[in-house]
Write a structure and sequence with these properties.
With 488 residues, the protein is of the alpha/beta class. Helix content is 47%, strand content 6%. It has a five-stranded parallel sheet. Strand 2, helix 2 and strand 3 form a beta-alpha-beta unit.
Amino acid sequence: MNISIIWFRNDLRLTGNPAVFHSARSGQVLPTYIWDETLPDQEGGASRWWLHESLLSLERSLLSTGSPLVFARGSTLDILVRFAKTSKAQKIVWNERTEPWARAFDSMVKNELLSFGLKVETYPPDLLSNPHEMAGKNGPFRVFGHFWKHLRPTLNPPETLPAPLRISPPEILPVSDTLSGWGWNPQKPDWAKGLREEWVPGEQHAHRTLDRFLDETLGDYANGRDRLDSPAVSRLSPFLHAGEITSEQIVRKTLDKLLDHPDLEADGEKFLSEIGWREFSRHLLIHFPQMVDTPFQKKFSHFPWKENTGSLLAWKSGKTGYPIVDAAMRQLWKTGYMPNRARMITASFLSKDLLISWQEGARWFWETLVDWDLANNTVSWQWVSGVGVDAAAYFRIFNPVLLGERFDPEGLYIRKWVPEIRNLPDHLIHRPWEAPENISGQAGITLGQDYPWPIVDHQDARQEALSLFRALGEKGTGKQGSMTLGQE
């Protein structure tokens, strides 16, 4: 009897999972999830909570097929070798990842397993293209428009591999850890309460979320995705990060929807292009792994970022005095999420108004986002701060007041997340410092006590940022792009 171990990572699904599909057809299977304590943490607090819930969902799905999910913590290599001996498995199977650290780690694990006489079978990661075949005249693509022009005509994903109805486990099973013992579901204090109220992780809910988006929201996507008061977004990004749904599955269903509803073409193409941004981020990180730690544009390696603990804390806690920024940062803390446009505004404010490095912002998003993703987070932060590829020109510094008025015109988003100023009239909700005393008094707020004064003057901060960027000779492209679906 052929016995295989499936090593689950960021592919927590049964449908569209080649490692599961092929292993279940070839013999007995031991599904395994390993928390490798020898590696640095790869997940922040919020995404680790999601991972905990996603694993519980996967465990239930596997049990319905007749198979357990075995949990273990320690060294991946030691555990896989030990589990192979216990279960009499001859082969280790997994789906590859795209992160630079994971590619190096997988290569090491594979070589070691082979040296122990075990077979190794791997399948490509969740990508829409082969990154080594996607190239322009001068090598890997650096501009999204060129990348998408090359990729879009090729999009025609195959039908999704079905989930196995039955998975036969080996006769002898290793002893499993209990997931609850890992402490990934916070209780004291229970800071994840807002996440539980906002999200239902798991493969089944991922597909329900996609179907609901395509049926109810897609028609407003192109125009509504930037709205903050009622954003027309997919909310698929955390499911994508955990691998509960794949890019191929999303693209396949979207293309099928457009065939039946050609009137949705403009919205559908915009949505597909945002999936393309996610792909582009992976393309960049595979070809330029140094972007994880350093700006793509080397001249910004010594940019004089400020170290201002007070301003950084005000940004993190949503107390900058700029209501749209504060609303977004409070939403992030409570729900582990904020819409794409809010991410752009808050990232620009940190890196260009406060002149605090993009790495600090990326670290906070790593800790607080349920959909945190290394490629999306890195590429998007570099894009907004003007130091990456296909970057927003340095002189494009988002005005938090004007963008708030544009994308939350009635202040509904602000009133939800910054309730202390909810009684201000619409024309002052985005600029409470301009409210006369009689109006602020009627609204029940005293600036500086109930809500902070702005921690910087945007116009002064803008001029300082422009001066510093010009000093490095940045000329800018004059062209704006977008951010990834991974941020939506």
